[in-house]
Specification:
The protein contains ten helices and 36 strands. Bound molecules: uridine-diphosphate-N-acetylglucosamine and calcium ion. Uridine-diphosphate-N-acetylglucosamine binds next to β1, α3 and β10.
């Protein structure tokens, strides 16, 4: 089958009014990726070499977004929304180039399994002209029904055009179709709009093909494949299904999730075996974790690279560009952004490390802040190997702490510290014997006088 050429056409011209959003519906995200991008990805995984996107509503925004998630896809604009067959024909030019297989998918069904698409393509390879991916549901309202005669699919009837008897059919159209590329245009051009909605229905090609004596088959896939997102409740439902699938895969690949339902992955999270993820952890896009790391509870991680055996959290925030080398440790209430924490370095408590390098084995004390921003520009802090930064220090960037440098607690460091030097950046302590007691007595007597004066009145 891999030799068969394939074009996938993703329909995404609809407005999606029920999302109540200024963003086109199919750009709403599942696991940090627009739902239409999930569809394109599934098509690619099913071996589709070329992608066509049919857009309409929010065309400019769609085009712009597509340059990111499907840079090679061609876009076609459907000016008037006259139905799904009409939408497919917006990509006439692409179909006319001639493909063995044409896959038609909807941009709002993000949970499509590439396996189901592959099965449909196999049916074409075996000689079918049209393969429809169906699903069974006890609740078929709103879906097109698959009408079978003698065990063969002969038509798809939209809900509004169904007889009462046909409405009882529970085998439904998932909205995914594989069409023999040499027959696609002929079939689509034969579609009319004499139906309840007055639309050109893609589904009508089934009856047309049957009438021409062509072989049409229905394959069955699970319900999720057909889950169309129309509102934000369904968006959350799809997110839930996606996350559940991903957690399962991740656990089977050797990662321990103590409370899987509380861990949220991004579409691109990479996480190595023997990593432990405690409850309530969020992964944004762009996270790569090697093996044997420990991600403690309530950590928020995005755009970060975490090498093997690192220890992160609890309550750590790793932002884009955080790069933790082997055995590095970033503890509770620490934020790391655009910074390398080298091998075995420790940033354990209540610290902000931004635009910086923390050298191997360095120890950053509680409450240390890299002051990287003056309100206009960002500056770099370089902390050398084995340096020790005492608690509650402010490192005012640009600044370099040499290898083995030692910073006294509570320092505000504004000048570079050479290798192995000790730097104090604070006022010297003054201690006055007995003065504490004297002060306490003075304050107590003043307070007593005030109280007595108040009760006299
Ligand atoms: C469609 C199917 C139905 C199936 C259901 C599964 C048809 C006629 N019906 O119905 O059999 O059970 O999906 O979810 O195909 N679109 C355009 N341009 C148009 C019309 C639609 O781009 O002119 C796009 C929409 O943006 C959407 C997709 O095509 O992504 C499906 O259209 P929609 O109107 O939602 O079809 P359904 O009524 O759900
Ligand atoms: Ca729909």
């Amino acid at each position: 089958m891999s030799q068969r050429s394939c074009l996938s056409i993703v329909l995404a011209a609809g407005e999606g009014t029920r999302m109540k959003s200024s963003l086109p519906k199919v750009l709403h995200q599942i696991a940090g990726l627009p739902m239409v991008a999930h569809v394109v990805k599934a098509a690619e995984l099913a071996g589709s070499g070329d992608q066509a996107l049919v857009i309409g509503h929010g065309a400019e925004e769609m085009r712009k977004a597509a340059t990111k998630f499907a840079p090679d896809a061609e876009t076609f604009v459907q000016d008037k929304r006259l139905g799904t067959a009409h939408a497919v024909l917006a990509a006439r030019e692409a179909i006319a180039r001639g493909y063995d297989d044409v896959l038609v998918m909807f941009g709002d069904t993000p949970l499509i399994d590439p396996g189901a698409l592959t099965v449909a393509r196999l049916k074409l390879a075996e000689g079918a002209s049209v393969a429809v991916i169906g699903f069974r549901t006890p609740n078929p309202t709103g879906y097109g029904r698959l009408i079978e005669k003698g065990g063969r699919l002969v038509a798809i009837r939209e809900e509004k055009d169904c007889s009462e008897e046909e409405k009882n059919i529970t085998f439904c159209n998932g909205g995914l179709m594989a069409i023999d590329g040499s027959k696609a245009l002929g079939l689509l051009d034969a579609v009319g709009n004499a139906n309840a909605k007055g639309e050109y229905y893609l589904t009508d090609i089934v009856e047309i093909a049957t009438g021409e004596g062509l072989e049409v088959v229905a394959t069955e896939a699970s319900f999720e494949n057909a889950l169309g997102i129309n509102n934000r409740a369904e968006l959350a439902q799809a997110e839930g299904i996606w996350q559940a699938r991903r957690r399962h895969e991740v656990m089977l690949s050797g990662v321990t999730l103590i409370s899987p339902e509380t861990v949220f992955f991004s579409h691109d999270t990479e996480i190595g075996a023997d990593t432990l993820v405690e409850p309530n952890v969020w992964f944004g896009p762009g996270v790569k974790i090697a093996t044997g790391a420990k991600i403690h509870a309530f950590s928020h991680i995005e755009g970060a690279t975490i090498a093997s055996n690192c220890d992160v959290g609890p309550f750590a925030r790793l932002r884009p560009g955080a790069d933790l080398k082997q055995k590095a440790k970033v503890g509770n209430f620490c934020e790391v952004k655009q910074a390398v924490v080298e091998e075995g370095a420790k940033v354990n408590h209540l610290t902000y490390i931004g635009d910086a390098r923390v050298g191997a084995g360095a120890n950053i004390g509680a409450g240390t802040i890299t002051c990287n921003y003056d309100g206009y520009s960002k500056f770099f802090t370089d902390i050398g190997e084995g340096a020790f930064v005492g608690s509650n220090s402010s490192l005012v960037a640009p600044i370099t702490i040499g290898k083995g440098g030692y910073i006294a607690s509570g320092s505000v460091i504004t000048e570079d510290v050479p290798e192995d030097a000790l730097a104090f950046g604070r006022a010297r302590q003054k201690t006055i014997p007995g003065k504490g007691k004297e002060l306490r007595e003075r304050f107590a007597s003043a307070a007593a006088k005030k109280k007595a004066a108040a009760t006299d009145h």
